[in-house]
Amino acid sequence: MKLEGRVRLPGFLLALRFLALVLWSFPGARALDNGLAMTPTMGWLHWERFMCNVDCQEEPDSCISEKLFMQMAELMESDGWKDVGYEYLCIDDCWMAPKRDSEGRLQADPKRFPRGIRHLADYVHSKGLKLGIYADVGNKTCAGFPGSFGHYDIDAKTFADWGVDLLKFDGCYCDSVEHLEKGYKRMSLALNRTGRSIVYSCEWPLYVWPFRKPNYTEIRQYCNHWRNFEDVYDSWQSVKSILAWTSFNQKRIVDVAGPGGWNDPDMLVIGNFGLSWDQQVTQMALWAIMAAPLLMSNDLRHISPQAKALLQDKDVIAINQDPLGKQGYRLRKEDNIEVWERPLSDLAWAVAMVNLQEMGGPRFHTISIASLGQGLACIPDCMITQLLPEKRKLGFYQWTSDLKTKINPTGTVLLRLAAT
Ligand code: GLA
């Protein structure tokens, strides 16, 4: 039921609001103190879309080469990506030459990166963007290129000398969990010692999970974001499994996220081949709710206007980048409909309703406003805007009212509730 007029705030409601303000203002656990990633990192990462394609003869336009990254940099600047916040252009595995140089430094493959990484970094910086690179804590990268084990200091220094701004540090080919954990810490300290601001993107918990429960308080002290779960693929099955893992483990991972350190559910695959429109909406909405790094892996040279508009949706990005920096969580699941919510600054809330029923057509779902935001989202009323699948002002709603929405199969309705 919509509310027509405004209601005056009685004293006890003001007290509740004050309580909410206090509750949501508690800082989270201590973060890596490098001043970076105060909001989730935004950018582009090559892996899901371009993988380890090193055959520039056969596929000159999609092999991992300086040309690919220079083209993406150009588009990130010219096509509005940078303007909405996508800033880090990141290289993943397979950029390296098979051997270190005579001084023990990593080097880029000379055929595919003929002018070296420093040249690429300069070019990326000239576009007002930042450059990310990839290495591995163990003896080899996952694709078999030289690992950083035993070389943490020299590799950190090399990346800093080249002007790199982010390091994705993978965890393949490490002979023990002890070495892995030590290695992640040592690389963090080594990066810090270079004096250059380098975002540190870890996969530490993902590689610890098979052995024991990761210590997230510690991980947060060393990493700016960390992967918890398997690699994302260009499929609904994959996106769905990431959401299921996240909600199943939310008690363990949600509170640890905050400015400076974030859970990383992996890349956005929007704009590729495997997700329907509704599934792309779901990924965008839920990555915003989860305060996830927004690292697209797609081909910016060939992307539909619809996918581009979704990825560049300023209202949804604002939820992802909300300065309060609290990760959202799944509130409930009933009859294959999940309700997720995330507290935002200024006492606002984001609410996402996902229809996981893969049969039939759009389904109606009614939520009671009083059940949202731990009862505090809409006291005594709030202004609700639907952001996805398309933007629509829904108007004022009272605490005691209900809201009826229609959600497509595998789709999501994303709302923003603003305090009045
Ligand atoms: C692992 C990571 C991926 C990607 C590949 C590269 O699987 O989890 O994100 O970096 O390695 O080989």
Automatic annotation (TrEMBL):
<keyword id="KW-0458">Lysosome</keyword>
<keyword id="KW-0325">Glycoprotein</keyword>
<dbReference type="Pfam" id="PF16499">
    <property type="entry name" value="Melibiase_2"/>
</dbReference>
<dbReference type="InterPro" id="IPR035373">
    <property type="entry name" value="Melibiase/NAGA_C"/>
</dbReference>
<comment type="function">
    <text>Catalyzes the hydrolysis of glycosphingolipids and participates in their degradation in the lysosome.</text>
</comment>
<keyword id="KW-0443">Lipid metabolism</keyword>
<feature type="signal peptide">
    <location>
        <begin position="1"/>
        <end position="31"/>
    </location>
</feature>
<dbReference type="InterPro" id="IPR002241">
    <property type="entry name" value="Glyco_hydro_27"/>
</dbReference>
<keyword id="KW-1015">Disulfide bond</keyword>
<feature type="domain" description="Alpha galactosidase A C-terminal">
    <location>
        <begin position="325"/>
        <end position="411"/>
    </location>
</feature>
<dbReference type="GO" id="GO:0046479">
    <property type="term" value="P:glycosphingolipid catabolic process"/>
</dbReference>
<keyword id="KW-0732">Signal</keyword>
<dbReference type="GO" id="GO:0005576">
    <property type="term" value="C:extracellular region"/>
</dbReference>
<dbReference type="Pfam" id="PF17450">
    <property type="entry name" value="Melibiase_2_C"/>
</dbReference>
<dbReference type="InterPro" id="IPR013780">
    <property type="entry name" value="Glyco_hydro_b"/>
</dbReference>
<dbReference type="InterPro" id="IPR017853">
    <property type="entry name" value="GH"/>
</dbReference>
<dbReference type="GO" id="GO:0004557">
    <property type="term" value="F:alpha-galactosidase activity"/>
</dbReference>
<dbReference type="InterPro" id="IPR000111">
    <property type="entry name" value="Glyco_hydro_27/36_CS"/>
</dbReference>
<dbReference type="GO" id="GO:0005764">
    <property type="term" value="C:lysosome"/>
</dbReference>
<comment type="similarity">
    <text>Belongs to the glycosyl hydrolase 27 family.</text>
</comment>
<dbReference type="GO" id="GO:0016020">
    <property type="term" value="C:membrane"/>
</dbReference>
<dbReference type="InterPro" id="IPR013785">
    <property type="entry name" value="Aldolase_TIM"/>
</dbReference>
<dbReference type="GO" id="GO:0016139">
    <property type="term" value="P:glycoside catabolic process"/>
</dbReference>
<keyword id="KW-0326">Glycosidase</keyword>
<comment type="subunit">
    <text>Homodimer.</text>
</comment>
<protein>
    <recommendedName>
        <fullName>Alpha-galactosidase</fullName>
        <ecNumber>3.2.1.-</ecNumber>
    </recommendedName>
</protein>
<dbReference type="GO" id="GO:0009311">
    <property type="term" value="P:oligosaccharide metabolic process"/>
</dbReference>
<keyword id="KW-0378">Hydrolase</keyword>
